[in-house]
Amino acid sequence: MLRVVEANLGEDEKLALAKVVDSGWITMGDQVRAFERAFAEEHGAVDAVAVSSCTAGLHLAMQALEIGPGDEVLVPSLTFVATVNSVLYAGANPVFVDIVSLDEPHMCCADAAAKCTARTKAVVVMHYGGYLLDGDLWHHFARTRGLHLIEDAAHAAGLDRPAGFGHAAVFSFFGNKNMTTGEGGMVFARDQDVLDKVKQMRSHGMTSLTLQRLYGPTLTYDVTMLGYNYRMDELRAAIGLVQLRNLKAWNEKREKLTGLYRRLLHIQCPDVSVPFSISRPSSYHILPVILPESADRQRVADRMRDAGIQTSVHYPPIHRFSWYQSRFPSVRLPRTEEFCRRELTLPLHPKLKERDVETVVCVLAEALSG
């Protein structure tokens, strides 16, 4: 089976894990701090905070920016559900915004502007597929309206032009991401005070950690804010340090495979389009395609699976999920809905070979013509 995604894990990760086990210290220690510093440096940030997941990081960013009950937050529906869940965790109200177009499935600034109210406090943008949003556009949008700008950068690890133009940016290291720690995330913040709040809140709001008390003079600790158990452990951080060293090379491989996909699809599947036809910085996280309007997506996916090729959908629109639809029944996002109806994700990861891409495109062409 040619999978949509396949994690790159090997002997170096095993050795890193063994060293942590041998050290006898497996949570919130030197490996976590080293990973935070290395990831921040790789992305041009001053510092970062490692957390248990991107979802946790988004929640902490909301809390640190004091987004809460009575506030509205502009959000995309074309994203993973955690993006919007985090708004509800903070007690705020999500306001769904449509995408620009089928070719540019980023949140539409004009639609966001039309949905701003006196209660709007923040906007969450998402670098869909790893393709960088227009930072200047969204920075201006947020600044002129006095809004917090939060980036869901789950797809964006290792971008040539880093994410991080907003008040906070949160990355994911889930198993399907460009680099993985199994579960885990990382938070950037423009304001050091905000980052410090995230750092303290991730560990129950405590003023000192176990490792600090082990080597320092402090015997006890205080709790000065409501906190959570959103810590990253040493095992995941050790894997992250190994993965980070390979991230640039892996993203370069993804870029080459994406270029090959675009060329072959243009020749063999001219009715299939690949979003982001205008070049922009990307981590090339996934390979989404838009099937012809008349295509039966399930039938195409079934035929490809029968040929040994996994496909997926990124993403079902959040506002159409049963739980969300019951609470926001009047939401209509025509461009998002059309994109989500026709989108199909093809395999893309560094373990793929060029002949695998050729096979995928040939099978897709046959599935569409049959």
Describe this structure in words.
Helix 3 crosses helix 7, helix 9 (234-268) crosses helix 13 and helix 10 (297-306) packs across helix 13 (354-369). The protein has helices at 11-23, 30-42, 54-64, 82-89, 109-114, 135-145, 192-201, 210-215, 234-268, 297-306, 322-327, 334-342, 354-369; strands spanning 49-51, 72-76, 93-97, 120-126, 148-152, 168-172, 185-189, 287-290, 343-346. The protein folds into two domains: 11-242, 3-Layer(aba) Sandwich (Aspartate Aminotransferase, domain 2), CATH 3.40.640.10; 247-369, Alpha-Beta Complex (Aspartate Aminotransferase, domain 1). By secondary structure, the chain is α/β, with parallel strands linked by helices. The model has no long low-confidence stretch (mean pLDDT 96). Helix content is 42%, strand content 12%. It has a seven-stranded mixed beta sheet, with helices on both faces. The chain is built from 13 helices and nine strands.
Question: Could you say which overall geometry the principal axes of the C-alpha atoms support?
Answer: globular
The SSE string, one letter per element, is HHEHEHEHEHEEEHHHEHHHEH
Distance between the termini: 21 Å
Strand tally is 9
Q: Which segments are poorly predicted (pLDDT under 50) over 5 or more consecutive residues?
A: none
Give the count of structural domains.
Answer: 2
CATH class identity of the largest domain = Alpha Beta
Overall residue-averaged pLDDT value: 96
Largest sheet: 7 strands, mixed
The CATH architecture designation of the largest domain is 3-Layer(aba) Sandwich
Oligomer: single chain
Distinct helical segment count: 13
The CATH superfamily of the largest domain is Type I PLP-dependent aspartate aminotransferase-like (Major domain)
List the strand order in the largest sheet.
1-7-6-5-4-2-3
CATH domain topology of the largest domain: Aspartate Aminotransferase, domain 2
How big a fraction of the residues is strand?
A: 5-15%
Summarize the amount of helix as a percent range.
Answer: 40-55%
Structural class: alpha/beta
Query: Cα-atom Rg, whole angstroms?
Result: 21 Å
